[in-house]
Known about the structure:
Layout (H helix, E strand, L loop, with lengths): L6 H11 L12 H6 L15 H6 L18 H9 L4 H25 L1
Amino acid sequence: MQFEWDEQKNLANIRKHGIDFMSKLSATDWARIDAITDETIDTSDIPPLSDAFFARARLKTPRPPKVEVALSVDSDVLDWFKAQGENWEQRANAALRIYAEAHLTSSASHHAA
Length: 113
């Protein structure tokens, strides 16, 4: 797995959590980990996956990044979301997503007909 170091994120973590991840040296033997093959991994304690498991399985795709917008809404609607408590913005986003996904599905079926 490749990752790109983000110094700004590291500084934010230091401010928020008091942890400098670069100051903690890893005790992991990465050369040994890299040398492991699929055949040498013991999976005997993992139960087999049934057809029922795959029937219930759903693909979860990453969500697009959030963007800040200025949006005019009715004051009573805004008041209702705010009355739901902390994270009201996430609840409003979830409500908009449910609406959009419902209409994307119905829109796609109209175009397919």
